[in-house]
Design brief:
5-stranded parallel β-sheet, about 300 residues, about 15% strand, alpha/beta, 2 domains, Rossmann fold, 11 helices, binds phosphoric acid mono(formamide)ester
Amino acid sequence: MNLSHLVSLADLSAGQITELLDCAEALRPQALSGSSQRAALQGKSVCTLFFEPSTRTRSSFQLAAMRLGADVLGFDASHSSGSKGETAVDTMRNLEAMGVDAFVVRTSVDGQLGDLIGAAQTSTRFINAGDGRSNHPTQGLLDMLTIRQHKGHDFSRLKIAMVGDIRHSRVARSDLHALKALGCGEIRVCGPKALMPEDATLDGCRSVDDFDAAIEGVDVVMMLRLQRERMQEGLVTSLEHYHCQYGLDTRRLALAKPDAMVMHPGPMNRGVEITDAVADGPQSVIMAQVSNGVAVRMAVLKTIFGA
Ligand code: CP
């Protein structure tokens, strides 16, 4: 596959998404242990340029790049000259001048990847690690890989419920791009009206107001985090009320298929969108999602370098 940057899953065909998932699947044995891939990116330098906090995405990109043999530079925005007014573009160009070959970028600014790509040398690679509310393509890929591992490759047989704050969620947008591209049988979306997007994000989805109705008979439940850092005041009246209406507990989960899998991208607001019993219960695949993140990010790094 010829891919210089990964900005949005909307830019990829179903075939390209499947190719990346197949590559990640093949890399899984090396993703969490072993050293057989250490020569793949030897001599390359990868910088995690994160202007927003992260636990999973930054750490798994750094491990993925190290397990492929790249030099890894972890940029810490809170201790950078950004606090003196340096722009993101100037920051990137200075790191590029030190020999960084690829940037993994997280930013609160929708579309900022385009500015960075436009200002960089044409040989420099970029991967979107989450921009504003727009895209989180590697989260979308790792979610698809996790579904495939548990439910098989035929997405047309699947009913999926996506529940919570879809409006502010870049994870939701990337998952929806991928689910639609892979031909998911039915996508139900559920959440407070104030937390539903007003653009074309939900085209092709079935909106269901009541969570009990939305979860009935589904194969996959995707819970989303309340993105309070991106939210105007007053969109959610109280967390207790939100939990009563849209929190996933064992009673609600029993309405889904008995073998339904529960997903959450993390970080979780335990007791708000999901209870401890469900998050840590037998149907949760949340830690499998995290493990798959390393393999997916190895696959994306290898692909953008043509390795
Ligand atoms: N899922 C996810 O993006 O988590 P982090 O914010 O910890 O990277």
